[in-house]
Give the backbone structure.
Amino acid sequence: MCGIAGILYKSSTAADAMVGKALIDMLDGCQHRGPDSTGFSLYRESHPGHLRLRFIVGDGDAAHEAIDRVKAKLAEFQATIVEEEHKGSSYAAMVKFDGDLQKFAFEMEHAAKLSSIGESLDIIKDLGGAHDVDNVYKIEEFHGTHGIGHVRLATESDVAPEATHPFWATGFADISIVHNGQITNYYKMRRRLEKQGYFFNTDNDSELIAVYLADKLKHGITLKDALKTSIEDLDGTFSFLVSTKDEIGYAKDRLAAKPMVKYEDDNIIAIASEEVSLNRLFPGRALNTSEPAPGTYDTWQRSTSA
Amino acid sequence: MATIDLSVTSVTDANALLRKYGADGVDVDVLNPDARHHIGVGLTHPINVHIKGSAGYFCGGLTDGPRFVVDNNVGWGVGDNMLRGSIVVNGNASAIPGVAIRGAEIVVKGNIGSRAGQVMKEGTLLACGNANFMAGYMMYGGRLIILGDAGEKVGQDMTGGNIYVAGRLGEMGTDAMLTDLPKAELDDILAFLDKYKIPFKGTLQKIVNAGKKLRYPRSEPRRRAIPFFDSFADNAYWNAKVQEDIHIKSQIGRYRIRGYGATRPMPHLSDIAFKKDIAIGAGTDPDVISKVNMKTEVGGRSGANPLKLSMPVMIAPMSYGALSKSAKLALAIASKLSGISENTGEGGMSNEQRAEAEQLIYQCLSGRLGWNIHDMQRANGLEIYISQGAKPGLGGQLMAKKVTPEIARIRGIPAGIDLRSPSRHPDVLGADDLVIKVEEFREATGYRVPVSVKLGAGRVRDDIKIAWKDGFDFVELDGMQGSTGAAGNEVLEFVGIPTLSAIQEARDALTEVGGLDMPIVLMGGIKDGIDAVKALALGAHAVAVGTSAIIAGGCIACLQCHVGSCVTGIATQDPEHEKRYNVPVEAQNIHHYLESMRWQIAAITHALGYADPHQVSRDDLVALTPEAAAITRLPYHPEYREREQDLRRAS
């Protein structure tokens, strides 16, 4: 039960866009939909041969123990730390690594609660509102081309940083999702994916969407086609956003039970649960928005040429 | 002409200003709306309000009279429950535009979102562009005009009213059909389009209800029924009741409907006893009531005016419709005499009931039957019904015999249908929507009136946390032993969880999230003051009585409430039957019964050594059965059973 928001600046010359600020504004605009916790998927600059990892480590002694475990595990995989950061309840590291990502990810998961791995993806999520999370993690300073975010009102699972969106598709670099709704064939779909060797970090139904999409991408299916089949395969109510290293997309269930509004112009595509979030980007302006129809999906790619 | 700038004024302040300008007859321009929710909610004066931009959810909702113009888009539920007045939207409207309108004219120049006009009763909703999925879903009356394409499932489960479509029709909704469009009706529509200066040259197709689902096809054969209570008393496998049930179903081909709640034995408050050996009765201090503080406030946690109860007891929600006006009147009078609150239940507030009840909670259900801004503003509490203990997850049922022209008029529905209320609210599909709904109610009543939620006991642990997070002022929690005027027998017997489990889960959940400041009013099989004190000890702040109040007022528990021919004049709308009901006498009887509860609560509280029943705690209780012990985690002490029986006999 939540609010979602995503933004993509289409032009690569906009690599310096204030994506962090835009996401904070949009999520603050719909914070009433989810006061428990807030999360952001940010896509930072990537360095060939390097991976960004972020863990939820808690605080106090437990945090230091978790960080020690992470470091020991990284050493085991001969992943050398280039940069590191311990803020709030999370620990982030950029490491040099070029082995099998899936195996690496599953092993790292045993060291501490893994939030994300990617060449560029960094999922920052914690308890409180958009501004609370920004105060700790300085989201506002983040510049980039795109990102998605989420405000959460926990209904059936815990109020905890790890139960907060966005969810990373464990084992697949740079894919994340935010979801509003409820997947009712969760266990059936989860068992199906687990049989294929996929790993789930949480019992949250939204994580399923991330793993489902990652599985499709792994089999060479485009993101757009993966979104198309998700509407057939997933049962329940959903409006969700997905982001990869260079695109964002949405899918909406056929009952249209969960809201979604989008705004697009030559420079940006912005999607949110409510128009009030989009209007935060353009105060005082009447926006030409539209509502995706039930059972529809779409993707937008950032331009990679200069 | 006045101006309100929402970039510097909060929506709450803006709505207060709008009410003031409304009273003075001054038109208003609203600047920088930026798609904020609840703009203009609760306005009851015929002024012009020009919103210069987009508005969010429930723009112009819960209003009567104003004329809004919105320059750009609107969010969910534009014109929610609007009585008179109009809203012209120059952009698009999101989901459920014109939901539950009762006379308003809503004109959307662009496209409209899904479920347009859901449960609308009267008035016109016009989309100049396309409509989305399930336009006219469960509409009861009025007209929905779509100049573009209709989308899929148009007219899904509509009961009354007309839908007119100029563009393409998708798949037709269940129980909707095409019919001829009479010239006079077309002229009416063209006049409406002309009034709003909308050019139109096309042709229209008319869709109405097909009439296949308005009534149960076969009613139950009339015969001397074996009481439902007998079905579980006799352990024989194919007992007479089981056979009777099969015979009747072989005639009607569906589930059976009856009144009351679960009749089968299940763990309840009678499986709990007080640990201390107390004796109340002849030896009790005759002045005990004055020695115990029973005053109970409910609903003030967010600054609204709380209900002030003379004891921790309320009358549970029961509708005028399920019950006769006379029975509701007797309950209202008794509630006033005993200094407690009465509740409208589904189906609106009558003037007589409002006049007699000193404190009245007004219940809002999914069908928005009898719901309107004026009664909201004269209520002492508002209640959003999510579900009830007797039939969690299902809407109300009112059989055709009880849907008289007057009941139909109040509810805004066609007379003479088997009314099956929707099982979910049009605008509450999750906790995130619910919080916006609660805020709408608060805006409509200036934050004066407490807003509560009624939850039928199902997945209480999750639901109660949502209620707390959504900021409700209190929760009415209804267990499986709660009764109803009509529901399927299997649902009554086998859906939900017992009242005892419900309060325990609620208490555990609130402890977990630190939400014990949100009071719980427990209901579902509360039959006396002894049950009430046990409920309080287990964590309730107050209890509500429905069935026992009805029995005190003459009900004979025949379980035939749904039929509409109640011999006592309680559960009927038939004047011949109703005249048997003596309002002043039954009001006194209900009052006396409530006073007996007061005495029991005081006597037990005093005997346990406390000065306030809210001081009684779990430490004062034991469980008499392994099931009750497992549910409540109270120590299991079967040897206390005799003492419990003595207590009941004595009081």
